[in-house]
Amino acid sequence: MKCTSEYTILLNKFIDIIGDNFLDDLVDKYDSDYKVHKFKTKEHLLCLLYYHLTEKDSLEDFVSELKGNNKLNKVLPEISKSQISRKNEDRDYKIFYDIFQYLFERLKSQTGYRKALKEIGSVKLIDSSTISCCLLFITISLGEI
Question: In terms of DSSP H, where are the helices of the chain?
Fold first, then answer.
């Protein structure tokens, strides 16, 4: 298992790859930070990435790791389970879909379609509120193969 500092470096690299301009354009497109003072889209994305990279089993595991972890809190805010669940429910999932598509297209252009799918592997979800959107896109993706 990687140490916290390695994960924070990875998270920052993901943001570099995605690009602040691309992310800002998506935030504007979906108006995803409108009237948001805490836990903006970028922090939400970083939490989703960290959850996936560290292969957390539950939201409880994720939140407990954030509590009092000063190194990790430089990149990810301390946040409660209910706040994450509420944001998962309220924030338009399409913004994360667009980011995933962008990253997938970049990977696919470098490795090819089948290898890109293999390299991504399974995608972890923070809570079940996002399962319905994933099922929708699996259906769409299977139709495109």
Answer: 4-18, 20-30, 41-53, 59-66, 70-73, 81-90, 94-111, 113-120, 131-144
Task: Give the pLDDT band (50/70/90) at residue 129.
Answer: very low
Rounded CA separation 98/96 (Å): 5
Give pTM, 2 decimals. Answer: 0.78
User: Distance (Å, rounded) from C-alpha 121 to C-alpha 59?
Assistant: 20
Two structure tokens written together for 35: 């009237």
Angstrom distances, CA of residue 74 to CA of 29, 66, 102, 106, 107: 27, 10, 26, 28, 28
Cα 54 to Cα 10: distance, rounded to the nearest angstrom: 11
Distance CA 46, CA 15 (A): 8
Averaged confidence pLDDT in the chain: 83
The length of the chain in residues reads: 145
Dihedral sign, Cα of residue 94, residue 99, residue 102, residue 104: negative
Q: How far apart are CA 35 and CA 40, in angstroms?
A: 10
